[in-house]
UniProtKB/TrEMBL annotation:
<feature type="transmembrane region" description="Helical">
    <location>
        <begin position="375"/>
        <end position="400"/>
    </location>
</feature>
<feature type="transmembrane region" description="Helical">
    <location>
        <begin position="107"/>
        <end position="127"/>
    </location>
</feature>
<dbReference type="InterPro" id="IPR029020">
    <property type="entry name" value="Ammonium/urea_transptr"/>
</dbReference>
<feature type="transmembrane region" description="Helical">
    <location>
        <begin position="6"/>
        <end position="22"/>
    </location>
</feature>
<keyword id="KW-0924">Ammonia transport</keyword>
<keyword id="KW-0812">Transmembrane</keyword>
<feature type="domain" description="Ammonium transporter AmtB-like">
    <location>
        <begin position="3"/>
        <end position="422"/>
    </location>
</feature>
<feature type="transmembrane region" description="Helical">
    <location>
        <begin position="289"/>
        <end position="309"/>
    </location>
</feature>
<comment type="similarity">
    <text>Belongs to the ammonia transporter channel (TC 1.A.11.2) family.</text>
</comment>
<feature type="transmembrane region" description="Helical">
    <location>
        <begin position="234"/>
        <end position="258"/>
    </location>
</feature>
<keyword id="KW-0813">Transport</keyword>
<comment type="function">
    <text>Involved in ammonium transport.</text>
</comment>
<dbReference type="GO" id="GO:0005886">
    <property type="term" value="C:plasma membrane"/>
</dbReference>
<dbReference type="InterPro" id="IPR024041">
    <property type="entry name" value="NH4_transpt_AmtB-like_dom"/>
</dbReference>
<feature type="transmembrane region" description="Helical">
    <location>
        <begin position="202"/>
        <end position="222"/>
    </location>
</feature>
<dbReference type="GO" id="GO:0008519">
    <property type="term" value="F:ammonium channel activity"/>
</dbReference>
<protein>
    <recommendedName>
        <fullName>Ammonium transporter</fullName>
    </recommendedName>
</protein>
Length: 461
């Protein structure tokens, strides 16, 4: 329950205030509210039908049967996970147990906050233009037809679990899914207004850093809670999480300094996030040296895809992924799952997934098989999210426009909610002419910085 609360704090207030601070002033309220709404909506859907679709009785090899997770009988029974999913701590000895020693209600709570943060991560791709009513419909539909499938397939005893795919705490189920779904939805919703794409300065970097801090420390619950016990596996997962995040942040910052001559605060947060995402699928499965290696990769490869590949790809340029969720979550999540297939230590694997004789490729045969399994599992998650997210968006737009009307895009929060974030005049122009903000938008990616032409035009005016 403590771990679940830490994960919940990552969303509310963590991502609520991170989104509220990192976007342009006129979108601060709307961005924060998208997160708050998703957190509430997922809760009701989760206990009504989605939990059992993810962790209940099998309906299909990739899906559980929908039924409520409510009632006194339910709340008093013990949690029933797929047989031998984990080994649990008993005194000083780790012993295999099929049933954790806590009420099922705790399991529902713990897994709900994971589902909620996945939807909130998707919102990061859609900030600044998605119709709030379309978002309100998108959340329960995507939870029902996408999240529950990947959760059951990989965690709930589905076909990927039985095949031996290892996703310790959601690199695939949460981050790869969110990155692909966010990018796909961003394509169908369409881009922000031209003015917003050219000029999208963060309205409060310090507030953004508060949210980032909650995200980082909350990850102790995200990865530390997944053994369902305070055991060796849990302690190692928390330690590896911090090692990888710190390494990734430092690598990203060093690359910014080397190539752009200045350390970016937003870049540092991006590096922190990619490190946290990358270690997630293998947090309790790898040793400390591997966590450092994964941090080096997560601080450099997503940096390269965001700063170099994104600028040269017509597809990536066409799709307006507001906060670069594709790079920070899809790329980093895939990277984490693949490297888990390389670095997973056999003894730790046996604590987590005794169903198969799993081990990373670095530990000999049949490690290469595990790496291939990890890649195939990722391809399933990518394909499912591309197709299902597309269908959901096409269905919603029959009834509700996916994109806000142009008049709302011009005004922002006041038009959409009748509220504004700050009692200040204008849209932050007074603070836009900083030495850091006058650079070309290729400097730090993220679509947050102005183009050189836009800056020159404003300065001359």
């Amino acid at each position: 329950m403590t771990a679940a609360t830490l994960v919940g704090l990552q969303s509310v207030p963590g991502l609520v205030i991170l989104y509220g601070g990192i976007v342009k002033k006129k979108w601060a309220v709307n961005s924060a509210f998208m997160s708050l709404y998703a957190f509430a909506a997922v809760w009701l859907c989760w206990v009504t039908w989605a939990y059992n679709m993810s962790f209940g009785d099998k309906l299909l090899p990739l899906w559980g049967k929908a039924k409520p997770a409510l009632g006194q009988k339910f709340l008093l029974k013990q949690a029933a996970l797929p047989a031998t999913t984990h080994k649990f701590h008993s005194g000083d000895i780790e012993t295999p147990m099929a049933t954790p020693l806590y009420p099922m209600a705790t399991m529902v709570y713990f897994q709900c906050v994971f589902a909620a943060i996945t939807l909130i991560l998707i919102a990061g791709s859609l900030l600044g233009r998605m119709n709030i009513r379309a978002w309100m419909a998108f959340v329960p539909l995507w939870l029902t037809f996408s999240y529950t499938v990947t959760a059951f397939s990989i965690w709930g005893g589905g076909f990927l679990f039985q095949w031996g795919i290892m996703d310790y705490s959601g690199g695939y189920v949460i981050h790869l899914s969110a990155g692909v779904a966010g990018f796909t939805a961003a394509y169908w919703v369409g881009p922000r207004s031209t003015k917003d794409r050219e000029r999208f300065p963060p309205n409060n970097l310090l507030l953004m850093l508060v949210g980032a801090g909650l995200l980082w420390l909350g990850w102790a619950g995200f990865n530390g809670g997944d053994p369902y016990a305070a055991n060796t596996d849990s302690s190692l997962a928390v330690l590896n999480t911090n090692i990888c995040a710190a390494t990734s942040l430092l690598v990203w910052t060093c690359l910014d300094v080397i190539f752009f001559k200045k350390p970016s605060v937003i870049g540092a947060v991006q590096g922190m996030i990619t490190g946290l995402v990358c270690i997630t699928p293998g947090a309790g499965l790898v040793q400390g040296w591997a966590a450092i290696a994964m941090g080096v990769l997560s601080g450099s490869i997503p940096w390269f895809t965001m700063m170099v590949v994104h600028k040269r790809s017509r597809l990536l340029q066409k799709v307006d992924d507001t906060l670069g969720v594709f790079h920070t979550h899809a790329v980093a999540g895939f990277l984490g799952g693949a490297t888990t297939g390389l670095f997973a230590e056999p003894t730790l694997c046996s604590l987590f997934l005794p169903v198969t004789n799993s081990r990373g490729a670095f530990y000999g045969s049949p490690g290469g098989v595990q790496f291939l399994k990890q890649v195939v599992g990722a391809l399933f998650v990518i394909g499912w999210n591309l197709v299902v997210t597309t269908i959901i968006c096409l269905v919603i737009r029959i009834v509700i426009p996916l994109r806000m009307p142009d008049e709302e895009l011009v005004v922002g929060d006041d038009a959409v909610h009748g509220e504004e974030a700050y009692a200040l005049w204008g849209d932050g122009e007074k603070y836009e002419f900083t030495q850091h903000g006058s650079s070309d938008d290729t400097q730090h990616g993220h679509n947050l910085y102005p183009s050189a032409a836009a800056t020159a035009a404003v300065q001359s005016a």
